[in-house]
């Protein structure tokens, strides 16, 4: 007794004209567009300006190698980027979901955003960085860091596609795997450094079509002071809870406070549990516990004389209908600030 379907297949085969081959089956993965590695690589270039426009990389891996005196711009998100053996190049990288790895490069100036950043066997690099984890240098010298500041219309969506938060940026918290006693292999660029003086905008007609800006006020990533010495003994922590306008409210608050002369020290976007809220919010925790289930919180640390009063005043005036936590301690090393960022760093593995 045979299977009905096997009989039907046999009948179909017998009815097929003699000499005509059976068509191979088509699967969905056979119909995918073939990826050419050459489309995701710049190799062996000299004295050129090259790049990729938004949508042209779309999350693929990218390789830059053996380039000299080149200006390279990747205005899209990618999976990982490796830069090997490049000299005297300007490099811009849109959001990278994984790692950016520089090896054996020298005299390069860069602006980039990534999950992980690593430099090995390099010298004399200037990097305007947004990095979700602690940047690492190894066997490298004269590496200088600044905070990423860049804008073009597609950039915010590219951060989302790469799974990166614009508020998780540890650009200045550098770990040196190979420190030398009495020497510092890395440093921070001057706070007044103009990014366009280091990483100029592209000059080719194709790349100029991207509407770019390096103004700090327009930067997709908030420009923070990071590990630089604080100007004041007074700091204030503001925590915004998840909602439809959380990112817009955080940007508005930053603009207002920076406009009044206060400094944005650092930012974080993390999920909080009830025990975390108890440590950070203390006696006010019961007011905020129900809000934690809505999603991650955004925390902003501001510094400057009068920061606490300034934060409270602006929150009450502009965001009166929005629930926010504003620390009341004026100590720059207050329990509120330290408790939050210690917990956030542990959660993020920093």
Automatic annotation (TrEMBL):
Binding-site residues, GTP: 98-99, 115-118
Q: Does the keyword GTP-binding apply?
A: yes
Membrane topology of this protein: Lipid-anchor
C-CAP/cofactor C-like domain segment(s): 24-179
One example of a Gene Ontology biological process annotation: post-Golgi vesicle-mediated transport
Q: Name one GO cellular component term.
A: cytoplasmic vesicle
Q: Which residue numbers carry lipidation of type N-myristoyl glycine? A: 2
Note the InterPro entries from the entry: C-CAP_CF_C-like, CAP/MinC_C, CAP_C_sf, CARP_motif, NDK-like_dom_sf, Tubulin-bd_cofactor_C_dom, XRP2
Query: Which positions are lipidated as S-palmitoyl cysteine?
Result: 3
Location, primary (coarse class):
membrane
Sequence ranges of Basic residues compositional bias: 1-10
- Compositional bias of kind Basic and acidic residues: 11-32
Family, as annotated: Belongs to the TBCC family. Belongs to the NDK family.
Job of this protein = Acts as a GTPase-activating protein (GAP) for tubulin in concert with tubulin-specific chaperone C, but does not enhance tubulin heterodimerization.
Listed name of the protein: Protein XRP2
What is the organism of origin for this protein?
Delphinapterus leucas (Beluga whale)
């Amino acid at each position: 007794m045979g299977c009905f379907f096997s009989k039907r297949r046999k009948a179909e085969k017998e009815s097929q004209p003699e000499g005509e081959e059976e068509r191979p089956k088509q699967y969905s993965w056979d119909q995918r567009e073939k990826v050419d590695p050459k489309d995701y690589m710049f190799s062996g270039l000299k004295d050129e300006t090259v790049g990729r426009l938004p949508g042209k990389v779309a999350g693929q891996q990218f390789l830059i190698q053996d380039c000299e005196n080149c200006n390279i711009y990747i205005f899209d998100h990618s999976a990982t980027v490796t830069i090997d053996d490049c000299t005297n190049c300007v490099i811009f990288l849109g959001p990278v979901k994984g790692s950016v790895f520089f090896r054996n490069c020298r005299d390069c100036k860069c602006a980039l955003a990534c999950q992980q950043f690593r430099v090995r066997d390099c010298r004399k690099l200037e990097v305007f960085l947004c990095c979700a984890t602690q940047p690492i240098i190894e066997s490298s010298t004269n590496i200088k860091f600044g905070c990423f500041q860049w804008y073009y219309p597609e950039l915010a969506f590219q951060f989302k596609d790469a799974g990166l938060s614009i508020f998780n940026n540890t650009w200045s918290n550098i770990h040196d795997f190979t420190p030398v006693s009495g020497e510092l292999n890395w440093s921070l660029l001057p706070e007044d450094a103009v990014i366009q003086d280091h990483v100029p905008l592209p000059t080719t007609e194709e790349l100029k079509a991207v509407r770019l800006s390096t103004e700090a006020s327009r930067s997709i990533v908030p420009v923070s002071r990071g590990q630089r010495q604080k100007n004041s003994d007074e700091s204030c922590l503001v925590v915004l809870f998840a909602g439809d306008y959380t990112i817009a409210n955080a940007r508005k608050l930053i603009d207002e406070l920076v406009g009044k002369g206060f400094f944005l020290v650092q930012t974080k976007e993390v999920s909080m549990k009830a025990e975390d809220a108890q440590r950070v919010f203390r006696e006010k925790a019961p007011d905020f516990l129900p809000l934690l289930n809505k999603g991650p919180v955004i925390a902003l640390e501001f510094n400057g004389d009068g920061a606490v009063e300034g934060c409270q005043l602006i929150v009450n005036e502009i965001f009166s209908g929005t629930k926010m936590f504003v620390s009341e301690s004026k100590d720059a090393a207050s329990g509120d600030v330290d408790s939050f960022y210690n917990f956030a760093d542990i959660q993020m593995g920093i």
